[in-house]
């Protein structure tokens, strides 16, 4: 009997060790995401073990991501930087991927501003930088700045890549303004600024040169600042001058909700339910869309293009809106964002 008891004690101890190990692992990865609306509304869903945090402390780590409109209701791992090969992206010179998933190019013009998204309740513009080498019929261009106009007041916000002759990762090349005044967002991963009316949140996703801009009820924009590299210049023949590395933005838009069915803009119109891209034709390797004349605005923060729809009165009433987007997550800790989404721990 003593031998049996000893064996039982050993087995019990082993089981206890296993339980303690499993319990600690569950606690270590016990991070949950929850949506405020959609098919997954108010369901506490466990984040994957590989990405247990919505705001990982390591800028290279993937974050817990939940698509609140997916009927699957399953969090996944995702980078917090722009994905230039996914819908809503605008990268390179500039290469867009529309809401319909189709690639197209819009060249614009150096030092001019164009409406990317124009809706009765908000406006997003882009200013282009670039140059035209001798003998070339058009400018080489990149997105240098974004301007946001929203609300009935309205509120304005901008971010831009500052001009630099040479590139250094140790220098922050981002500049911000809020309602016309220069805005300082301290350097440092997860450094966060929020507007007094909670309309806009900016969070750095690395120490310098990368941010996520969140506008509740509208969407988020992930942004990187990058230069035109010597290799880019060699491959594409940009003939970049010695006094400008053409620091520019890589951006990706993710819209939550709040766009009308008639949304306009270079990118915005691709989110219409009935949109068909006229430039996407069989055999066309680089479909280029026009529209410079109808989408040109007088400044980065103006909504006066020929096709612009932004109307402060409509913004105040909410307008005629439809769901178009992906996710809205709520941060119950209150540390980040505007309180629209959450990561909770058990």
Question: What does it look like?
Answer:
The protein is an alpha+beta fold. 13% of the residues lie in helices and 29% in strands. The chain contains four helices and 20 strands. The radius of gyration is 24 Å and the shape is globular.
Fraction in helix:
10-25%
Output mean pLDDT. 84
Strand residue percentage: 25-35%
Question: Strands of the biggest beta sheet: in what spatial order?
Answer: 7-6-5-18-17-16-15-14
Number of helices: 4
The general outline is globular
Question: Helix-strand pattern, N to C?
Answer: HEEEEEEEEEEEEEEEEEHEHEHE
First CA to last CA: what distance? 43 Å
Instruction: Describe the largest sheet.
Output: 8 strands, antiparallel
Low-confidence stretches: 4-29, 321-346
How many strand units?
20
What is the subunit arrangement here? single chain
**Structural class per helix/strand content?**
alpha+beta
Provide the gyration radius in Å: 24 Å
């Amino acid at each position: 009997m003593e031998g049996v008891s000893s064996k039982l004690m050993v087995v019990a101890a082993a089981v206890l060790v296993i339980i303690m190990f499993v319990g600690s692992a569950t606690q270590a990865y016990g991070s949950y995401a929850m949506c405020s609306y959609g098919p997954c509304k108010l369901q506490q869903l466990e984040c994957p073990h590989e990405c247990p945090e919505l705001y990982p402390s390591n800028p290279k780590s993937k974050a817990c991501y939940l698509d609140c409109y997916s009927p699957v209701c399953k969090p996944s791992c995702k980078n917090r930087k722009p994905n230039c090969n996914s819908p809503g992206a605008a990268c390179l010179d500039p290469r867009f991927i529309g809401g319909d998933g189709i690639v197209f190019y819009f060249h614009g013009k150096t030092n001019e501003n164009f409406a990317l998204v124009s809706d009765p309740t908000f406006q997003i513009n882009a200013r282009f930088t670039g140059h035209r080498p001798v003998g070339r019929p058009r400018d080489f261009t990149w997105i240098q700045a974004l301007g946001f106009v929203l609300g009935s007041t309205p509120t304005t916000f901008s971010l831009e890549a500052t001009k630099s002759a040479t590139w250094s990762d140790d220098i922050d090349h981002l500049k911000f303004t809020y309602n016309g005044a220069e805005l300082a967002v301290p350097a440092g991963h997860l450094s966060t600024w929020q507007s007094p009316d909670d309309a806009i949140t900016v969070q750095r996703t690395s120490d310098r040169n990368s941010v996520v801009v969140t506008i509740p009820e509208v969407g988020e924009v992930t942004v990187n600042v990058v230069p035109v590299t010597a290799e880019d210049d060699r491959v594409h023949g940009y003939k970049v001058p010695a006094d400008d590395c053409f620091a520019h933005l890589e951006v990706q838009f993710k819209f939550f909700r709040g766009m009308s069915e008639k949304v306009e803009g270079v990118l915005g119109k691709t989110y219409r339910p009935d949109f068909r891209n006229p430039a996407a034709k069989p055999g066309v390797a680089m479909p280029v869309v026009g529209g410079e004349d109808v989408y040109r605005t007088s400044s980065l923060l103006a909504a006066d293009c020929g096709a612009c729809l932004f109307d402060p009165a409509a913004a105040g009433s909410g307008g005629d809106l439809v769901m178009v987007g992906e996710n809205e997550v709520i941060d119950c800790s209150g540390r980040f964002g505007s309180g629209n989404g959450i990561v909770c721990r058990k």
